[in-house]
Amino acid sequence: MEFQIRDPILVVGLGGAGCRLATSIKEGLGCDSLLISHDPKDLNHDSSKILINTNPVLNPSAYLIRGISFGARGSIAQRLESYSTIMIVANLAGKSGAALAPVVSQIGKELGKSVLSFGIMPFKFEKDRIFFSGVSLKRLKANSDCTIIIDNDALLDSNPDLTPDSCNVITNGALMHVVSTLKDSSLPLKTNILSTSKDISDIETSLRDSIKMLYEDAPPNNIKSALLYVVGGNKVPIGVLNSMVSTVSGIFSNDSTRVSLSVSNGEKSKVVLLTSIEGETRFDKYDPLGIIPKENALDWDEPDASVKIDLDLEQIE
User: Fold this and answer.
1) What SS3 state is found at 146?
2) 152 compared with 305, residue with greater pLDDT
3) How far apart are CA 288 and CA 308, in angstroms?
4) The pLDDT value given to residue 310
5) Which end of the chain has fewer CB atoms < 10 Å from its terminal CB, N or C?
6) Phi-psi bin for 30: left (phi > 0), alpha (psi -120 to 50), beta?
7) How buried is 139 (Cβ within 10 angstroms: 0-12 exposed, 13-18 middle, 19+ buried)?
8) Cis omega before residue 122 (within 30°)?
9) DSSP character for 141?
10) Distances from the Cα of 246 to the Cαs of 154, 240, 243, in angstroms?
11) Parallel/antiparallel/unpaired status of strands 146-151 and 32-37
12) Using one digit for the tens of pLDDT, what is the confidence trace for 11-48?
């Protein structure tokens, strides 16, 4: 089974990076967009937007942002109603993205929409964000027909000389390349991992680094299909392209693993690898309670949130 994108499309950006990417996707696909965040600076774009107003709290927790967003569920549902495909881009490394991803994806699922989600994970050194991002990703996956995970930390592990900003630029560029081909291709359902490399002149080295990045996130026996996007592949010899497909097929030695190739024009040659995963990934370990089956979890239906309640209580001396 594969995910087929259908018009009309609405791309929903959540959090700072999510809003910026959603704006770029809107321009690339020629679709509509909706930006949602608790920070007005994230909404400084020419798009439809919803502000999750956390005033007068200056530094709200992710739980509070989520709690206040429940009051905007009606407005969000109204904006999603007229679209067939909801594309959610969530920065799960930030408070707004991680807080809102389960809420928005759940609304899309309840409306019966086709939900395609992109989840951007935090760096490993951002220890205070790992648990909450893992819980949010688990719910985002449950509410989505297809989820693509972008792991900046795996790229940094493979290339320790890169700065965090450089990692963001590289992985965001890979995400935009996949999005640009969506109308001409299909995606495997459920969980997918996006991996790539830094700019390298040798296309085979780029492939090696993409596979190394993938190995940081999932074992090879959990990979069910792989799609090789070769940017600048029009300048790569056919023999090299054939060798790359054979190499990937040999690494993922399971006979049921399908390897496909997509070649596009570009000034620089680079590999973007999109792999479909069944089974555990390292993100499942972000939430220590994730091993508990959904049917045995008492609080699964509604994501954890806190609500701001103003109580006029007199001070008791």
Assistant:
1) strand
2) 152
3) 28
4) 58
5) C
6) left
7) middle
8) no
9) H
10) 24, 10, 5
11) unpaired
12) 999 988 899 999 999 988 889 999 999 999 989 888 89
Contacts of 104 by beta carbon, 8 Å cutoff, 6+ apart: 12, 14, 36, 76, 88, 90
- pTM (global) more than 0.90: no
Residues 301, 294: contact at Cβ < 8 Å? no
C-alpha distances (whole Å) from 193 to each of 17, 51, 240, 299 are 18, 30, 24, 28
CB atoms within 10 A of CB 282: 17
Taking the CA atoms of the chain, what radius of gyration do you get in angstroms? 20
* Mean pLDDT confidence for 296-302: 66
**Rounded distance between C-alpha atoms, residue 134 and residue 122, angstroms:** 10
Q: How far apart are the C-alpha atoms of 271 and 17, rounded to whole Å?
A: 23
Residue whose entry in the numeric block shows the structure tokens 């935090």:
122
Rounded to whole angstroms, the Cα distance separating 153 from 18 reads: 17
Report which DSSP code applies to 163.
Answer: -
At residue 157, φ and ψ (nearest 5 deg) are: -60, -40
* DSSP 8-state class, residue 315: P
**Domains of the chain by start residue, with CATH:** 1-144 (3.40.50.1440)
Q: Alpha-carbon distance 243 to 266, whole Å? A: 20
The Cα–Cα gap between 201 and 170 comes to: 15
Dist CA 52 CA 38 (whole Å): 4
